[in-house]
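Problem: given the chain below (556 residues), write out its structure.
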Amino acid sequence: MIRAGAERLNGNVDSVNALNVFPVPDGDTGTNMNLTLTSGVKELEKKAAAGSAHVGQLAEAFSKGLLMGARGNSGVILSQLFRGFGKGVAHEESLTPRQFVDGLKRGVETAYKAVIKPVEGTVLTVAREAADKGVSRARQTDDVAVVMEAVLEEARVSLNKTPTLLPVLAQANVVDAGGQGLLLIYEGFYAALTGEEISYSVIDATRTPDLETLGRIAHEQNAQAHFDTSEIEHGYCTEFMVKLTGEKVRKNPFDEEQFRADMGRFGDSLLVVADDDLVKVHIHAEHPGETLTFAQRFGDLTGIKIENMREQHTTILEQGGRAHAAPAAVAPEASRSIKPFGIVAVAAGDGIADIFSSLAVDEVIQGGQTMNPSTEELVQAVKRIHANHVFILPNNKNIILTAEQVADLVEVPVTVLPTRTIPQGLAALLAFNEESEAEENRERMMESVHGVRSGEVTYAVRDSKYEGGTIKEGDFLGIQEGKIQTVGDNLIETSQHLLAQMLSDGADVVTILYGKDVTDSQVKALTDFLKQRHPEVECEVHDGGQPLYFFLFSVE
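Solution.
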């Protein structure tokens, strides 16, 4: 059944990728879900080949494979849906229809808990409503195919409603891409249960990708501007892990649900994920020390991060300037000795990778727009560094959630800086100081991130619409902070218009990273424009070598 679901998704990767709110050539929801599911199936088949595994053990193996292979937000959410399912049926040798849908229900709960701010009208909604329907149907029949049919039909209904929940989907006249991917998996499940033949051959899923509903979350970037700092009730974003220890657990038996309930009294935005002997906690608390003291009853604390959200919010509102720390020296050749800090960054383009390496990045993983790295790739990068503390710069909004899974899978503390663009990643690196403590570095780096404006110029892969009008396939798109600002049929003119808008509030420095398909004359036309129109602005130009994006702009 799992294999049939994977085959169904595998054969429709392009159709899922095509459900893109913005018509830029770097969405990859279908690709990410397919690669994630492929990883899960491989782990499942390894377990099955070993023999004598019951359905619960197979489900756990599948869950493990999904987590290690998870790519992008859609892949991580998919892994959490089946992680919860695997936990729910772990001890079952076979499944009744009721146990099956209860597993789906638990998967939904796990996925919602994994996302700090769940958004309705996404794959989460489709999974939740489909599971609820399955639970209801399982009370009426013992036929698992009939129950799966109910799950499938409700998933279709729920998917078709996603545009009514997310206006940006309605504007683009599409349904949610992640929800469509899940529906395809369920179609495969149902086909297997009813005896329909589906050949299984997971192929290389690195097909032409698009951008996963970039517009859906673009509005969140400035959402904090709509409330006052004084409205923040619990001022400290607190994250830590608890390594459960035998002696402490014997004195204070650990129960995940009770622990979650007890932690809830310290604040809000609570996330508790327990896996074997490790518990990851996220909470917004007014007195973070109390949460740490309570959690320490059950084991040793690690990966502690406490952020003052009132200060962060004030910084966001001010949008003020910042001072760069001096660039770090070029990292020496790696050795087996343990150093205080290590840095992992994701980048596309040899030129950009070289720039990151020159700024003391230990591991540059090729990825971003066209291919999101897996959890396993990030884990291995962290392990290769041999540092006491590692920072990860995703540099893409669709890699942040994947990066956040790494902390649970490595022994050293990991800080994920939620950089959404290459310019943000570069700004963060320029603020890094190896002599400072981890938390001081995090605060300084995030302050730099908030002080940079990011822009990019790419092209449209299909006809579409946006707030300013219509888009034709092949048009050039000027995008600032995830929002299309200008559209044109001339690359340089579109780039100039975007830069003019980004500079409307003034700036000191503009950095231009040009892509692999840009000519010297095009770069000169852009720099001449800046000299003539904005002579007061310092301009830095670098060969980024990035695919798909002709220019990346950083304005400070």
